[in-house]
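Re-run with default settings, no changes from the original entry. Doing this only to confirm the output is reproducible before filing.
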Amino acid sequence: MRGVRSLNDLPFLIWCHHNASARWIEALTKPLAARRAPTAAPSPPESVQVSKLLNGLVITSLENYSPFSNVGVFVKAGSRYDTLENQGVSHVLRLAAKLTTKGASAFKICRGVEALGGSLSVTSSTETLAYTANCLRDDLVTTAQDVRPWEVEELTSRVKVDKAVAQQCPLIGVIEKLHEAAYKTALSNSLYCPDNMVGRISPKQLQSFVQDNCTTGRMALVGLGVLRQVGEGFLSVRSGAGAPVVKSVYRGGELRVQNHEDLVHAVIASDGGVTGSVEADAFSVLQRILGTGMHSETVTNVEWLSFRPQLFGVYTIAQAASAAEVIKASVAQVRAAAEGNVSEADISRAKSQVKAEYLMSVEGSDGLMEEIGAQALNTAAYQLPDTVLQAIDTITTEDVVKVTCKKNVDAKKTMAASGHLVNTPFMDEV
């Protein structure tokens, strides 16, 4: 791999060096008929290599011999790490990812990526901020971001647009309210900058957030189509565990947003299992047992979902007049599962669906990157798909019934609802 520059700070940007554009364009202009199939035997597949450096950085690499490289940096710097003083900083940081860096202007980065047909993306969740790039493996470059005050000011309009787009989706709104009601501090933080903080996040706050959270002990580097030795020299950031993590306690509760929308969106959830645990796998099987399909003139949709972080519940969309009937009928199905009204055939079918969905999710490079990154960041290890499938196979009817009773039916619940709520029951009425 050529042209790899280390970076001295985060957030950063991974991009494709524009000097290779001429070679790329030339290759595209050659007739396909003139190209010969390679005669060399394909290289044997390699396993995922995981290593943890002394400074705490976890490096995960997979040499798949692809001409394209997928590189991602996963950081424990999601919205749960926002504080009361800088709420929304993780949202602004995500939008600032493609601004001018220490090595290139925003315009140069955009043109360089376009010339090579590469792609850049930055995503965030409650837990994680992820920077990913796809490009030709010979032209991978990194560069440190340099926060400019005037560019941060210009982000205000983008923050407003981003919030407005999210607010157009009722599901996002009701899930945000669900987390706000379910947790104290940290996990109750919104993924989006609150209205009172729009335009008030300063460059100093951005830099401070990066210094406190984007450290080697809270970071995982994942590369597909790159060598581990390259990855070891890829990052040069602050060492250590970073700022102390604020614990968030599940409390349960209820939030209702009254408006004049014809459709009522409602979620009733409870504290779920930790990712990778037997409880989490049992909830995944239960989710497929309950399934979807309650559709009629009055019911738009009913789904049983696993909400991150670690919540399981039922999400209903119904006409305002029939909201009570739909919500109570959906909750009744969960209670039926807790009473053992689940057959072995249901369990077998659900486990097959869980395994199929998992395998399809890691079939592409993007899904595989996300799965490896999540595991590396949380456990500093990687479980092969066979191991994951074996864990799902061990789930029994007793496991499903137990987790349904203990963690849902008999547990403290959380409810969030929005719409014309005149016929929507309160949580204690369900």
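The first strand starts at residue 12 and ends at 16. Residues 57 and 204 are 25 Å apart (CA to CA).
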